[in-house]
Amino acid sequence: MNEIIGIIIAAIISWFNFVLIDTWMGLPEMPGVKGADVLGRDIKKRGGDLAGGFFQGNIVCSPDASAGTLLAAIGCYSIGTPEGGFIAATLVYIGNRLCADPGYAGTTGALTITVIIVATSFIGITPAMFIVGMLLAIVTIQGIYHSGSSKLLGKIAQRMGRYTKLT
Amino acid sequence: MINYIGYIIAIASAVILGLILRLPLLPEKPIRQSWTISVIFPTAVLAIGFTAIISKLGYHLIGYQEYLVALVIGVLTAIFSKFILERILPPPVQEEVS
């Protein structure tokens, strides 16, 4: 497959993989640690959404599905598919426990993207494309415009019944 | 290399021994906020990961040997989850809100 098209498809798949799993696992509901709370409230002060801010704070402060997705893609690239993804899931779980997080989002994200990488390898999308795609996906959330991305994340959280009850 | 049957053996042995060691099948609800170590999460996930690590060490296992290794990994993972995991990676201590 053409590299550019492959990267775009991988970016879209990775974006949905980590946003949906992180929201489902309740990242927008509450900050896991104090740092996530500070980030969430700071983003709200700058015109963003509080639940989206907590989501962004939580993925900065512990390895959630975003890190799981990226590390599983790196694992599959460097170690092999699917073993690299399984090893990444285990390491993400240990990292989660060290970061005061029970670890459901990170390991689920790593395992689902491993299954997706195995499935999409049949249409020619390589783990390397997923690494670049995931970097682009995380840039759209964390790197361009926090207020806008937090509002979008807040709306997704509302749709999935995971909006924060905190004020 | 350990094939997919090896992974299934590792998960099955970890789950069965985990249940014998009285680990709960699933954490209590809401699962996403629970710190309870259960048979499905993280024991089965760790069994897959440890099997993958051993598989990639590069030993040449012949025939039934890989299934035996997978069985041992599953057993050790269940023992690790029950007795060691909470000691080396404990849940965070909640701070008092003043």
Mean pLDDT figure of chain B? 89
Total of helices of chain A: 8
Q: How would you name the oligomeric state of the polypeptide chains in this document?
A: heterodimer
Element string of chain A (H = helix, E = strand): HHHHHHHH
Distance between the terminal alpha carbons of chain B, to the nearest Å? Answer: 55 Å
Question: Average pLDDT of chain A, to the nearest integer?
Answer: 93
Q: Total number of β-strand segments of chain A? A: 0
The main sheet of chain A comes to:
none
What is the gyration radius of chain A calculated from CA atoms?
Answer: 15 Å
Low-confidence stretches of chain A: none
What is the count of DSSP helices of chain B, taking H or I runs of 4+ residues?
Answer: 3
Q: Which residue ranges of chain B are poorly predicted, with pLDDT under 50 across at least 5 consecutive positions?
A: none
Large-scale geometry of chain B: elongated
Sheet/helix structural class of chain A? mainly alpha
Total domain units of chain A: 1
Q: Helices and strands of chain B: which structural class? A: mainly alpha
* Terminus-to-terminus distance of chain A: 47 Å
Describe the structure.
The complex is a heterodimer of chains A (167) and B (98). By secondary structure, chain A is mostly helical. Chain A has helices at residues 3-24, 34-45, 50-61, 65-78, 83-98, 104-120, 127-142, 146-159. Chain A has one domain (3-158). In chain A, helix 1 (3-24) packs antiparallel against helix 6 and helix 4 (65-78) runs antiparallel to helix 5 (83-98). The longest helix of chain A has 22 residues, at 3-24. Chain B has 98 residues and is an all-alpha fold. Chain B contains three helices and no strands. The longest helix of chain B is centred in the C-terminal third of the chain and has 24 residues, at 65-88. The model of chain B has no long low-confidence stretch (mean pLDDT 89). The chains are: A mainly alpha (167), B mainly alpha (98).
